[in-house]
Amino acid sequence: MTTEPTPRAATAPDDRAAPSPEDLLEPLALVVRGHHDDLTAVAARHGLSTSQARALIALNAPMPMSALAAHLVCDASNATGLVGRMETRGLVRRTPSPDDRRSKVAARTPEGTELARTIRAEMRAVHGALEALTAEERTALLPLLEKLGQQLYA
Fold this sequence. Notes:
Blueprint: H1 21-45, H2 50-58, E1 63-64, H3 65-72, H4 76-88, E2 92-96, E3 104-108, H5 110-121, H6 124-131, H7 135-152
């Protein structure tokens, strides 16, 4: 006598157990690593380190050097070195802070703005992964990513 497996009842998505934060860590880490690897490869093609590319992208508005260092999670002297090398290439300029003349503010030059746009546009691995999502999935993902980012930096 053979017994056939009992068919499992179909469960609606709402019936599944919600993933725990631990369940989400590895998939999130994979996405972050993919973004980092893509940015690193594109930056290298343009003669920049990953940190320089991150700084260039972050400077979408003039930023005090201390704020840039905090954004990059590095020492102020490291941020100064990064910006100095990009300044030599004509990508960034430093000016005295209007609020505190002892401080400097970094800003992209037009060339730096164009390179930041180019770097983002050339991140094909990230773009490809996002394009593989349906319009509905991207629509659902955007507010979730925005909320996650707000929670991380609140």
